[in-house]
Model the fold of this input.
Amino acid sequence: MRIEFNGVDKFLATVNPKIYQKALNRTVNDIGAKMKTQTTKEVRRTYNIKAKDIKQFMQVRRSRYADMKYQISIRSSPLNAVRFGAKALKKKGNVSVKIKKTNGRRIIKRAFFAKSGALLQREKGTQKIRAVSTLSIPQMFNKKILEEAEAMAGKEFGKKLQDNFNFYIGKI
Done:
């Protein structure tokens, strides 16, 4: 994502370049943190997952004076269904899971909780056991969520830069 202004950044850079660099770095970090929060909330609006579970797989590299960029990388393997509110039902061998908030609970037959906390399922007709896997965290971040985050960043960046510049000018 690239954000440009009509002369505002050039004006601020000529007034005091060191203060402009500090303000820009702080602004990039502030907007990056807001984007992380907003995307997490948007994913949680669709999927029945805790914010802690999403943020656990996000790796953030904050802006520095040398590169001036904020990076969020998301990596995960498919998650076990226990992270989506799995509940044991009264009927033995049945577990219900609610993955999306818009859909109802799904019943998984021949399933049980392991001592490690994972949800396991016995394959039909055999005694083989496999983990019940669902989607991964990067699959939850769709194009719409990322576009909304970029729009928010573009809208708030100018005001935040001005506020941070005024903050550092006031410290002189």
Q: What stands out?
A: Residues 25 and 67 are 9 Å apart (CA to CA). Strands lie at 58-61, 71-74, 87-88, 94-97, 106-109, 111-113, 119-122, 129-131. The chain has two domains: 8-76+137-170, 81-131.
